[in-house]
Amino acid sequence: MADRPVTLLDKSEVLTGLFTVWDDLDELLRGLSEPDWRTPSALAGWDVQAVVSHIIGTESFLQGISPPAPDVDVSALQHVRNEIGVMNECWVRHLSQEPGATVLEKFREVTSTRRKVLDNMSVDDWNAVGPTPAGPDSYGRFMRIRVFDCWMHEQDIRIGLGRPSSDEDLTGPAAQLSLAEIETSMGFVVGKRAGAPDGSRVLFDLTGPLARQMRVRVDGRARLVDDFGGLDPTTTIRVDALQFTRLAGGRPLCPQRSQDIEFDGDEELAARIVEQLNFVI
């Protein structure tokens, strides 16, 4: 099997997105009341405080900090499905009794440290291949996945609080990088998960402030393409771009945006693709 291609990404662009989403989270969280911190997020089983605790835990892990010892066997909990889930739950439980202000301070501490580390990282280290949630790839790709994860969690918090991102918010760099990260999995979703037959040409027509088009062609295998060579798509899925990210993350849709999903062409395949969109661990 040929080596997987390495994803090389512009360090400045990715870090702008990552630091922007951390700033946006800071601004959102600093105005929360204590009941707000305990409000259920859009992520099943976690309140706002738990989501922020998870982000703290992941960034702490990337700093080499071991998770705190849990008070119970978290691996036995129903919603914990893997080692990443175990680590997440250790941090969530550890910080669950702290006041929101303390959790926000810990978020600021770890992200401030991470900013310095990432700013000082050499381009060689940025491009170096290592483990990522998507398999072996560059550290830059890992950090784009961090943008995606943090941005998705910002939306989880906003939707839970009933304060969804505005159209202007959705044009920012973190949202754009998150969509770019999601796009890399669409060949897998169309080909492997949905089982699109050979010859399929699938167009994701995303609308709203994050509007873009993604194309997947199945020719022996499903892969992203820039165009269909003058041919029409055999299947079109038209949906608001934010809602598309919610589907890809296995999340409930945002109540304040259009929830319409339109199909053209092979509607049976389109419906199957939408059912299989959730690729997030």
UniProtKB/TrEMBL annotation:
Listed GO MF terms: metal ion binding
Domain of life according to the entry: Bacteria
Classification via InterPro entries: DinB/YfiT-like, Maleyloyr_isom, MDMPI_C-term_domain, MDMPI_metal-binding
Residues annotated as domain Mycothiol-dependent maleylpyruvate isomerase metal-binding: 20-158
Annotated ranges, domain MDMPI C-terminal: 177-272
Protein name per the record: Mycothiol-dependent maleylpyruvate isomerase metal-binding domain-containing protein
Species of provenance: Mycobacterium asiaticum
